[in-house]
Write a structure and sequence with these properties.
This protein has 444 residues and is of the alpha/beta class. The protein is built from 17 helices and 15 strands. The strands form 5 sheets. It has a 3-stranded mixed beta sheet with strand order 2-1-15, sandwiched between helices. Strands 3-4-5 form a 3-stranded mixed beta sheet. Strands 6-7-8 form a 3-stranded mixed beta sheet, sandwiched between helices. Bound molecules: N~2~-(3-carboxypropanoyl)-L-arginine. The site of N~2~-(3-carboxypropanoyl)-L-arginine (SUG) has 23 residues, from loops.
Length: 444
């Protein structure tokens, strides 16, 4: 079956800020309190999307979520008009409001786990929105994410998120890698987890955000073949070094798995399991980066592995779309130069500027959700959520018109910001054809 791999990026929302909300995410902690630029952030994200679309890839857009999350604040007992709710909550607890105001849905690699129809026994495309239950500010994303995914993929099975309990902690595609010969062929799915919740704590200082139990349930729900599915444990050491998701130390595409040698608790066992799962389908190609070439600390701070690994039309070998921070770091830059000079599966590296997102620990790969679509599925996907020249121009104008230049964490208590954001998002539903009831504030 012919199929293409589409990238659906999260459009960066108007409240983008540096709240320091994600323990274990070193960039989030380090940049807490900095002045952010929502406008620059959203334009950087759009430019990355345009680069991919111009290179001939299918590029989708997922709309931002409405923040502050007023319905959540009402559940906590704040009442009155939306403005009363925001001001009351801000007086009571600004940290709570910061959590309810994060633009974190931009990192759509955490939106869901996606299994292409070629891997699922019923021949349907399956998506499970991630419950993101470990972090308060992210745990409020999944319902609206489900709505966005249903709008984007009306032909797919979009499951509900897993229960909001730590046994089922799930962070979506950031801990999931699919390998295959061609995108439309049956592939193998690798689920990387940090914690087996039934065995007790993960033994890490920083939170292990993905459990084995969550990964098992998703594989079962998606009707994946047991022999083509691999569950591998992320090394404790990398979680405590700041790899809060596997995609901070590993990325895969087609037959190629590109990873840091410290990524997995049992590297040899993981590679053997991948080889076995791929038997009869393809020969996996492993590109392991040693700590000698790139120390773990550099890999994490420069986000070498949080790159997109893509097959560009007309290119034989894969292209790594890396953040400019990887180019700025002499060790990762030298590694990339050597990589493309060799004759392995990765033949080119392109650098993109997503610095605004990077300061919150979100690189090029965090900003996109990969969805393999057959020709029929692509034809059935919502065309208004696919980036073309016209949508790029409209969204860029929309950002420039509505977004603030600067944002400090304390600005989040400002009711004007809420009004500006909701006005912008209301207009966005028109641009993207999402209907007049897409956001909670439109449904009251
Ligand atoms: O969940 N940062 C996000 C970054 C997500 C990156 N995604 C992937 N690796 N796929 C997170 O930690 C920081 C927000 C703040 O501190 O304001 C934040 O949520």
């Amino acid at each position: 079956m012919l199929a293409r791999e589409a990238n659906y990026d999260g459009l960066i929302g108007p409240t983008h800020n540096y709240g320091g909300l994600s323990m274990g995410n070193l960039a989030s902690a380090k940049n807490k309190g900095l002045i952010a630029s929502p406008r620059a952030a959203a334009l950087q994200g759009l430019q990355k999307m345009k680069l991919m679309a111009d290179a001939g890839l299918v590029q989708g857009v997922l709309p931002p979520q409405a923040r502050p999350n007023i319905p959540e604040l009402r559940l906590m007992g704040f009442s009155g008009s939306d403005e009363d709710v925001l001001l009351g909550a801000w007086r009571a607890n600004p940290v709570l409001v910061r959590n309810m105001s994060s633009a974190s849905s931009m990192w759509s690699a955490n939106a869901a786990t996606v299994s292409p129809s070629a891997d699922c026994a019923d021949g349907r495309l399956h998506l499970t929105p991630a419950n993101l239950s470990t972090m308060l500010h992210r745990s409020i994303e999944h319902a609206q994410t489900g709505r966005a995914l249903r709008a984007a993929f009306p032909m797919a099975i979009v499951h509900d998120a897993l229960p909001m309990q730590s046994t089922y902690s799930d962070e979506g595609a950031a801990n999931h890698v699919r390998l295959c010969a061609e995108h439309g062929d049956a592939g193998i799915e690798l689920f990387v987890y940090g914690r087996d919740a039934l065995l007790g704590g993960g033994g890490t200082e920083f939170p292990a955000r993905q459990t084995l139990q969550a990964s098992h349930i998703i594989a079962t729900r998606h009707l994946l073949s047991g022999t083509r599915t691999v569950f591998a444990k992320q090394a404790r050491r990398v979680i405590d070094a700041g790899a809060f998701h596997n995609d901070v130390v590993c990325v895969g595409a087609k037959q190629c798995l590109f990873y840091h040698e410290d990524a997995f608790e049992d590297s040899a066992g993981t590679l053997a399991a991948i080889r076995k799962a791929a038997e009869g389908l393809f020969e996996p190609q492993f590109v392991a980066v040693s700590g000698e070439d790139v120390p773990l600390e550099d890999a994490i701070s420069a986000y070498l592995f949080n790159s997109m690994l893509v097959q560009l039309p007309g290119e034989e070998r894969l292209t790594l779309i890396a953040p400019t921070e990887t180019e700025d770091n002499p060790r990762t830059k030298a590694y990339c130069d050597t990589l493309v000079a060799g004759n392995g599966p990765i033949g080119a590296v392109k650098y993109v500027d997503v610095r605004q997102s990077m300061r919150n620990g979100g690189g090029p790969a965090c900003l996109r959700l990969r969805v393999v679509l057959t020709e029929a599925e692509l034809a059935a996907a919502n065309p208004k959520m696919i980036l073309d020249e016209a949508l790029y121009a409209q969204l860029s104008d929309w950002v420039t018109k509505h977004y603030r230049e600067d944002m400090a964490p304390n600005d989040l208590g400002d009711p004007d910001l809420m009004r500006e954001s909701f006005t912008a998002l209301d207009e966005l539903t028109g641009i993207m054809g999402l209907g007049g009831d897409f956001y909670p504030f439109q449904r009251v």
